[in-house]
């Protein structure tokens, strides 16, 4: 039946239209997952840079302390010896503080490392799942396409045998109603618009000798079994 093919063609066209959006959503998921991983890796790089800077800070202070110690051994003045000693203490305190900060950063780095490993695992799984879904979408698109070609061919074969005027009427009705151009008449009620038709119309439909339209919606009626 022509209408059956027409409805199926329309369904397939509607379904086909949703495919690019589904593809885009999957690609967006993939990008989100990659961005989350990249952001963690960037954090880890920042922590590493900060830690290296602290290491350098310790290095310069260690050098300063060594220089002060040499000066201390060379001096014979007691007050100068003590002043150098205070400066050494100050640097040693600073080194301690810096090393505490370094420890904190190392803890952060460890945490980030664990997070990155977990995120990498997650991203890998997501990538696999999304790749699978994308290839399913491809398969679906090609199935829908071949089904559409088959239906279009069948529809053309059926249309060939139908009177042109009737075919045009059907096309116009189908396009304007969007769902069905030919509907059943059940207990004198049009199943397209659910309105009761006149008894005269119902009799003509039951007669089955001509094309009868619903007075309300214009759809072509056929008698329900
Ligand atoms: Zn109707």
Question: What does this molecule look like?
Answer:
It is a single chain. Helix content is 80%, strand content 6%. Strands 2-1-4-3 form a 4-stranded mixed β-sheet, covered by helices on one side. It is rod-shaped and about 130 Å long. The mean pLDDT is 95. The chain is mainly alpha-helical. It contains 4 helices and 4 strands. The protein binds zinc ion. The site of zinc ion has 8 residues, from loops.
Task: Give me a quick take on this structure.
By secondary structure, this protein is mainly α.
**Oligomer type:** single chain
Widest beta sheet: strand line-up = 2-1-4-3
Instruction: Name the beta content range.
Output: 5-15%
Question: What is the number of E strands?
Answer: 4
What is the radius of gyration computed over CA atoms, rounded to a whole number of angstroms?
A: 41 Å
How helical, in percent, are the residues?
over 70%
Distance between the termini: 17 Å
Bound molecules: zinc ion
The backbone outline, from C-alpha atoms, is: rod-shaped
